Amino acid sequence: MAATSRQAQGDRHHYTAAWISAGALLLALFAVMLAISPRFVYGGLPVLERPIHTLVALMMAAGAVYLLALLLLRRQAAPGRAWWVWVLGVGLGMRLLMLPSVPMLETDYYRYLWDGAVAAAGHNPFIHPPRAIREGDAPQPLLELAAESGLVIERVSHPQLATIYPPVSQAAFATAHWVAPWRIEGLRLVFLAFDIIALALLVLLLKRLALPAAGVVVYWWNPLLVKEVYNSTHMEIVVVAFLAAALLLVVSRRWLLSSVALGLAAGAKLWPALLLPVLARRRGLSWGRCGAMALVFAAVCLAVTLPLLWQVHRGESGLSAYAGQWQVNAGLFQVVHAGAGLLPVADVQATARLIVAALVVMWVIWLCRRPAPDGRAVCERALWATAALFMLAPAQYPWYWLWLLPMLVVRRSPGLLLLTALLPLYYLRFPLRELELKPWFDHGVVWLQYAPALALLVWEYRRSTAAAEGDRRT
C-alpha cells in the first residue's frame, strides 16, 4: 500500500512538472517572438533580411510543445485549482505577450482598421474601394476620413477591391475603432473579448457533453490561435466565438437560438452556412422544428449578409474576386485543379472550384444521412464538415485552420491537430517568393504541411472503421 501510494505521488509530481515545463516553454517561445517582432515592421527590413526562418522555427517548436501537452491530457486526473490557475495563466500570458508585438508578415488588419472607421462613421464599406477613395472618386465624407486615416488607407491590401468582410465582422471592426481609432490595439482588445467569450462557451460545451473541462486546453494553449489573432490580428476569432455559441446552444437543445448564433457566424464569414444541416440533423428533432431552424437561420443570415451580397455583381467586389481567383497554400485543391485540366472545359479554375464545392456539399449530405444520436456526434460531424472545407479550399491560410478549434475541443483529431505544428511553414512563402522560387513552395512546402496530416487522418479513419467493425461483431 505504501509503495503504491508513493508511486501515485511520484506520478502526480511527474505530471505537475510536465505541465509546468510545457507552459514555461510556450511562454518563453512567445517571449522570443515578441523580441524579434520589431524586425518585421512595415516598410522596414527587406523580406530576406527579416528573421522569417526564426519565426517559423519558433512557431513549429511551440506547436510541438502544445501537442506534447495534449498527450498529457490523456492521463490527466481530475485537475485541481492550481492546475487551472496555471493553464489559464499560461494561455493569458501568451496572449499578453503578443498584444504589444509588431505584426509579422501580415497586413490584413489595415483593411479592418479602414472598414471599422467607415462603418463607425455610418458609411457603407461595401461600395467604394480604398483606391477609388485615394484617387478622389468618392463622397466628400469618405475623402475626409481617408485624410484622417494617415497611412492606414495607403497600406490596405488589394485596394482596388471593396471589402470582403460581412456586416458582423464590420460591427467588430467598428467597435475596435470606437475603442482606439486607427490603432491595432483596438482590434486586439475586441478580439480578446471574443476570445474569452469563446473560452467560456467551450468550457460550458464540454460540461454539457459530460466531457472533462480540462479539454479546453486544446483551445486556450493553441499557439496558432495566439499568433494569428494577437500578432497577425486576423478576425477569425469572431467566427470562432459565434460557432462555439451555436454548438453549445444546439447541444443544449436551444434549437432556434443555435440558428441565430450560426447565422451571426455566417455574418462574420460566410462559410458557417455549410453547418446548418449538421446542426439540424439530430435524433428526436421533428421535421417541423428543422424547418423552423432553417427559416430562422435564413432570416438572420440574410439580414447580416445582404449588404455584402448585394454588391457582388460589381467589378470591384472583393467577394467575387476571392471566390473566383484566390489560390494560396492549396494542397488537395492542386490535385482537383490538375484533374479539371484534363476535362474539355474553357475555364479550368472555375471548374475546379465547382468540383470542390460539389465534393464538400456531397460530404455534408453523407455526414447527415442519418440523424446524429447525441450532441457529441453533432460536434464531430461539424468538425469533419469544416475539415473538408479547409482541406479542399483553394486558399488555406493558417488562420483559416482556427475554424476547427471549437470542434477539436470535443473531438481531438491527431491529424488535424498536427497542423498546428506544420502550418507555420506557410510563412516560408515570403522568402521563396522573393527569391523567385514560388514553385518550390507550391509543390514542395505545401505538401510538407499537409501530407503528414493527411496520412494521419487516413490512419484515424482506418482505426475508427476497424473499431466499428469490432463492435458489430461483438
How would you characterize this protein structure?
The protein has one domain. Helix content is 68%, strand content 0%. The protein is built from 22 helices and no strands. It has helices at 2-36, 52-73, 81-98, 108-120, 130-134, 140-149, 167-179, 184-208, 217-220, 223-231, 236-251, 255-266, 276-280, 287-309, 318-325, 332-340, 348-367, 375-392, 405-408, 414-422, 429-434, 438-473. Helix 3 runs parallel beside helix 10 and helix 17 (348-367) runs antiparallel to helix 18.
Poorly predicted runs of 5 or more residues: none
Oligomer: single chain
**CA distance, first residue to last residue:** 37 Å
Percentage of helical residues? 55-70%
Summarize the structure.
This protein has 474 residues and is mostly helical. The chain has 22 helices and no strands.
Secondary-structure map:
Blueprint: H1 2-36, H2 52-73, H3 81-98, H4 108-120, H5 130-134, H6 140-149, H7 167-179, H8 184-208, H9 217-220, H10 223-231, H11 236-251, H12 255-266, H13 276-280, H14 287-309, H15 318-325, H16 332-340, H17 348-367, H18 375-392, H19 405-408, H20 414-422, H21 429-434, H22 438-473
Helix pairs in contact: 1-2, 1-3, 2-20, 3-10, 4-7, 7-8, 8-11, 11-12, 12-14, 16-17, 17-18, 20-22
